Amino acid sequence: MLSVQVSDLKTDGFPGIIKPMNTTFIRAAAVLLLLCAAAAAGSYALAQDQPKSAAPPVLVLAVMCETIENFKPVNQAVVFSISLGRVYCFTAFDPVPEKNDIYHRWYRQDRLISNAKLALNPPKWSSFSSMQLRDVDKGAWRVEIVDSQGMIMKTLRFSISD
Amino acid sequence: MGQLLGIGWQNVLDIALNTYILFRLYVLFRGTNVLRVLFAMVVLGVLRQVAVSMGLIITTWVLQGVIAVAALVIIIVFRNEISSVLQTKDLKSFFWGIPRYQLKTPMGIIVESVYEMARKKTGALIVLPLNKGLESVVQEGIPWQGKLSKEMLLSIFWDDNPVHDGAAVIQGDRITDVGVILPLSKRTDLPSHFGTRHRAALGLAEQTDALVIVVSEERGKITLVRNSQIYDINDASVLEKLLVRHAGDDTPARGFKKHTRELAVAAAICLVCVTGLWLSFSRGMETLATHDIPVEFINPGQKMEIFSSSASSIRLLLSGSRPLIRSLGPDRISVKLNLANAVPGINTLAVSRNTITLPPGISIKNIEPAQLEVLVDVSMQKELAVQPVWVGELARDLIMTHASAVPQKVGVIGPNQVLRQMHTLFTEPLLLENIHASGTLTADIALNPASIRLADQKNIKVQVAYTVEKREKTPQ
User: Fold this and answer.
1) Do A75 and B471 touch (CB under 8 A)?
2) Among B305, B436, B417, B323, which residue's Cα sits nearest to residue B12?
3) Is residue A44 part of a domain?
4) Which of B6, B77, B232, B336 stands the most exposed, by the fewest C-beta atoms within 10 Å?
């Protein structure tokens, strides 16, 4: 039976991807950034007199993997054996300016099998979905990472083999 | 012409030849009782066929017996008529000639001769046959075949002539037989002055449609007998009038037309009979044949294109006579499906008998498939991403971390409805068993469905670069 597992992972960082940094430096940088952002926002509001639009979440990692351990994708691949029983699609966003939704659309050949809705929370967020595999699921697959506006952010292509 | 009707030239020749044979038989035996018995046999044959089709066993058996007996009867009873037809005719008249009977008979000569003999009290008995033959009725005639003339007639009935007691038979402008013995009438109401000649004349007239002229030897009177009617002739013009009426009451020109018309009708009937017989025989030899005929699509809408069909040809099981089936080629059969009412998408079209053109005489026993699914749509072009398809089993200690195809996208042309749903082109399956290290493979693109084709007509090869690594962790 085919099923999709969806999970949101709140992360302070992406272990193995983003290294931990000095706290004082971060605070100073954050204050500086805030000041700059406030100044820029003020001048923009005065000039445009229009409502502020939030920046979209930035996809920094999208991979297919055999499993997820400790919030990390394990054995990233493009070919998966059916004997694994399940395959995962892992995505990481940084930054996530505001609470948002993204979608993992799973296609076998060109046929939509599943459309998993995943929530993103500021400041950065990782999430994954998975697909349980049956024998008939062998063949070409793809997962489209789609934002809340319906724009495809990334397409991951893989095969399910013997 | 034969080919147009679906009949080979051999069959046309077959029908023509037998029609002529039948027509010749009619011409040769016209007016004889043989022909009537033959007609009766044909009727019996038809009745027998009806009885067979109705399953009347005893009636069929009886009719079959009657027909067999009738055939014997014809040969035995009408042997004289048959032999006279076969023996007395020369080859030209047998195969080609058409007897004209009374049409060319010079009636004036007969009238003049008869009056001359009456004046001289010369007894005479002259027979002018019409349609019915005399062979089965008269006896002991002597073939004469002399050209008719007054002198000839007078000499035949001259008292010292050995044949003067018999009758002379006149056909056309010839005296064909003399000394012919006619059957005597058994009527009892005849006038007392009627002698043997009158009784013989009446006897023949009772059994045939011949006209008989009697010249009384004792009284020098002329008597005309026809259809059991006796006419005493006192005026030459009356005699000539009666003779002309007997010959058809026509001028030679009109008589010729009537005669030609009669023969034309007879020929037409012969043709119909032989054609019917041929059809009956050929149907009896009915056979079956299978033909695979390509389907022709007609009247597709503007800008519409046929992208696929569930079958490109139709298998027809055809039935017909063996000659027709043998002469039947695929070029003479067509299957045309009308796409005038087709809509974009898959259309189900019935392959009915109306959509199949066949030569006459051929019927359809089976159509396979009876309907086609035809994809008709507006054509469009689209760029589709190319994705490698991996099959088989990768070594357990390896993991394929990356695979990319070049070109990444390929343009295809296909039906609008199909291409709107398509986003990916897949390669032909790539085997994983042979992969032990990173490398590159070449693969063809699998064009599926068949309604799509590459925009660039060249067969594009996809280069697939892949990376494999040693597996660090085995999934739990």
Assistant:
1) yes
2) B323
3) no
4) B232
